[in-house]
Amino acid sequence: MLIRGGSVVSMDDHVGNFIGDILVHDGRIAAIAPAIAPPPGAEVLDATGKIVMPGFVNAHMHTWQTGLRGVAADWTISQYLRAIHAGLATHFRPEDIYIANLVGALSQLNCGTTTLVDWCHNNPSPEHTDAAVGGLVQSGIRALFLHGSPKPDPKPGQKHFSEVPMPRNEVVRLRRGQLASDDALVTLGLAILGPCMSIYDVCCEDFRLARETGTVASMHVTGPLLTPDGFERLAGENLLGPALNIVHGNVLSDAQLDLLVGHGVHFTVTAEVEMQMGFGRPLTGRLRRRGASISIGSDIESGMSSDMFTVTRMTLQAQRFLDSLDSFENSGQGPAEITIPCREALRWSTIDAARMAGLDQRTGSLTPGKAADIVVLSARDLNMHPVVDPVASIVLQAGVANVDTVIVGGIVRKRDGVMLYSDMPRRLDELAQSSMRILTDFNKARAA
Question: How much is the pTM?
Answer without folding.
Answer: 0.97
